[in-house]
Amino acid sequence: QVQLVESGGGLVQPGGSLRLSCAASGSIFSINAMGWYRQAPGKQRELVAQINYGGITNYSDSVKGRFTISRDSAKNTVYLQMNNMKPEDTAVYYCNVALWVAIGSPLGIYWGQGTQVTVSS
Question: So what's the pLDDT on residue 99?
Answer without folding.
Answer: 93
